[in-house]
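Researcher: Before we compare anything, I want clean individual predictions. No alignment, no superposition, just each chain on its own. First chain goes here; please echo the sequence and then give the C-alpha cells.
Model: Echoing the first chain and its structure:
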Amino acid sequence: MPWHDLGLIRRALRRLPAITKTWTATSAIAGCLLATAAFAQPYPSKPIMLILPFPAGSGIDVTARLVADQLGAKLGQPVVVENKAGANGAIAATYVARSAPDGYTLFMTTNSTHSANPWLLKNISYDPINDFTPIARMGNLPFIMVVNAKLGVRTFAEFVAYARARPGKLTYATSNATGVIGAATVSRLSGLELVQVPYTSAPQAMQDMLRGDIAMMFVDYASGLPHVQAGSIIALTVTTANRSPLLPDVPSMKEVGLPEFDMNSWNAIFAPAKTPPAIVNTLNRALRAIIDDPKVREKMRQYGFDAFSSSPQELDAFVRDELEKWRKWIREAKIEPQ
C-alpha cells in the first residue's frame, strides 16, 4: 500500500471519535422524534372510560349511557361507562383526580362531589376545583319530594301536619347530597322531626319506600317518576322555586310556602387537572353537538333530564358559584361534617 494511503487511514482513525459522537447524537434525536410521533397520535386512539359516582340504575347512570354511545360514535372510539359508587361519590372523584390527564378518563358527576362533599365530609382526598378540568355541562337532573302513598297524604301541607303530629317517628331516605340537604332544609323550615335512613343508591331506597319502610325522600325524576305515574308514591313538590316543564302538574317550593328553597341537581363532565386544551376542545365540541341534537334532548327529557350544554369556562364559573351556594345551604341546615 502506498505511504500516502496509510496517511489517509491514520487521519480517518483520528477523526473516528468525533464521527461516532455525531452519529450517536443524531441517532438519539431521531429516536426522540420517532417516539414523539408515535405518542402524538390523533386523539382519541383508544377507548375512553367515563366514570360515574353512583350505581347502575341511578338517574345519572341512565343519561351517561346515552351520552357515552353518542360520544363514542362522534369520536370513533368506544366510550365505556364504569360505576364507582361509594362515599357520596368521593371514591369516583378521587379515582379520576389521580388519573392521567390524557383524555382517556372522564368523569360525569353531579353537585354531590363538586358542591356538597367539601362541606359534608371532614376528609376528602380531592379538590373539586384544582383537581379537575371542566369540559361541559350536561344539564339538570331535577328532584321531587315524594311520600309513600300508604301515608294517605296528597299535598305538602298535609304531610307537614302529619309529620308534626308524629315527631321523631317518620323516616326519610337519603342516597345523595340533594336528598340529604333537601330533607334537612325542609325539616328546618317546616319545623319537622324526621329520622334519616342512609342508602347507597336511589333505586335501593325506592324499593324500601314501595314496601312501606320509608315515609319520604327526595328522588331524581328518572328514579321516581315511573312510580309517581303508577300511583305507588305521591309527588308533593319539585325542589325548585318554579315548576318544572318535565312535571308541570307538581307544585314548586314557592307554591308550597318555601320560596327560599330552590335546589337543582346539576350534571357535568370533567377530566383530570392539566388535561391538554386541544383534548378539552375536542371533547367540548363533541358533547355540545350531542346535547344540541333535538332527538337527544327529547330522549333525555323522557328520562327526566333537562339537557343543555356549556363551554369549559362557563362550567368552571358555575362550579365555583355552586360550591359557595351549597356551603350556605349545608350550614343553614346545621348539618355537621361526617
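Researcher: Okay. Second chain, same rules.
Model: Second chain and its structure:
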Amino acid sequence: MARLPAFPGFPGPDQARLSRYAYLARSIVYQQLSGKAAATIWRRAAALGSRGFPAPPQLLELSDEALRGAGLSGGKVAALRSLAEHVASGRLSLGGLARRPDDAVVEHLVQVRGIGEWTAQMFLIFKLGRLDVLPCADLGVQEGLRRLDGLVERPRPDELLARGAPWRPLASVAAWTLWRLADERG
C-alpha cells in the first residue's frame, strides 16, 4: 500500500455530480466497451437530453433510431429503456437507496435489464460510497489478489470472499487497492 496512491474516498467528483439515474445509465453504456469508445457514446447519448442525459420520460420518447444514432447497441437501448421505464413507473425508487442495506440495493437494482450484481456493486461503492463491498466476481479484484498473494492463477470468487473476510468493514478500500495492483505492469 505504501507504493500506491492515497485512497481517494468514494464517491469521486465525477460520480458525485451525476444523478443516481444518470450514473446507472452511464454504467450501462460503459459495459463491455473500451473507455474511449464508451466516453464518446456517452457524450452523444447525453447530448440527446435537454439538460444532460435524457430524463426517463425524455428517453422513453426518443426513437430507437435516435438512440442507435448515438452509437448505442440494440441491447444497450433495451437496457436504457428498461431503466427509464422502471424509474418513470416508480418500480425503481432511487431516492431511498442510501438508507437500504447493500443486499437490498443489489436486489432492487438487478430487476432492471442490463444491471447485474457487478453493476449494482459498483453503484454501491462509487455512487453511494459504501466502504464494505467486495466485488468477488470482478476480474481486476481477482487479478490484484493473485498478484498480492503471488498466486499462479486468479482466485475464484468464493476463494476471494474467504480471503477478504479480514478486510471487513473496509472491503471497498481493499478492492480499490487490488484494482491498483492489477493495473501495475509485471
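Researcher: What stands out in the second chain?
Model: The mean pLDDT is 92. Additionally, Residues 29 and 36 are 12 Å apart (CA to CA).
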